[in-house]
Amino acid sequence: MAGPRTRYGTEWVLAAAMTAYTLGALGGALVIARRRPRSQGRAAFAGLAVYGFAPLSLMLPVHPAAVVAAYAVAGIGIELFNVPWFTATQREVAPDKRPASPRWTSSSRTAWRPSGSR
Fold first, then answer.
1. Residue 80 domain-assigned (yes or no)
2. Least C-beta-crowded within 10 Å: which of 1, 23, 83, 88?
3. pTM for this model (two decimals)
4. d(CA 45, CA 117)
């Protein structure tokens, strides 16, 4: 599989993309922590949907800036999903079952990885 190093001849694209992803995730977490959408589920899944721009930018022959921008958008999107998901899990799961809840969430995410989900 051709990644950023083989396509662009350098590793700076990958470093910049990961930095953009991290900054996007921090920004997305701050936005969703402050703003509560009416339909948190729809907002969460819309955020999860934009995560697809990251691998798409690696598949298409685009400028390195497009890869970095796609990773920034993916970082924002994944946090728009993660914050409501994990707060809802903590809110909806009974207090005596909360220690097991993160294990089940992590296990289900790991089980779905072969399908391309995060």
1. yes
2. 1
3. 0.74
4. 12
